Amino acid sequence: MLVPFIGYARGRRFIGYVECEGDRLTDVLNRSDSVILRETYVESFEDETVVNLGDGEVDRSILYAVETTGGRGEVTRRIHTMRHRLQVQIGPYTALGLLHSLPGQLPLPHLHSRGPMITLSDATIGFVSRGTLQLRDVGTLIVNRDMLDWVRASDDEALAFPGVPVVSDRA
What global pTM score does this model have? Predict the structure, then answer.
């Protein structure tokens, strides 16, 4: 099954599809260091340039975030979770969304037990394109934990991000 994919890299985004075969896109991205894109275009944020890439492979390490409208994966793998609001800065992008964790669990300390790509639901991503601030509301935004510049979190949750500046709500 082809799933819509918008991957945000520095100064551009990749717009196309990824073959997921019943998996969630997050699982596909966490399983490999690269992703095969189908019917892909590359849009520059500097000017009006859009280039037809066709089918190609993109290294996950250049992706700050990925937007998708694909399925939620297998029903049998879904579990009840609690949602926690999270704001992050990832390179030139700012994102705000809901991070899911098990009931009674602080979400951030357990992020390192997940893969590098982390899902936020009901998210907004902000970026500058052609000199203008763009805000996109998306159902699912997958952010690259390895590229985080800072997170807004409580003091308890800050322990999950050694070496990443944490902005508290009290600042």
Answer: 0.83
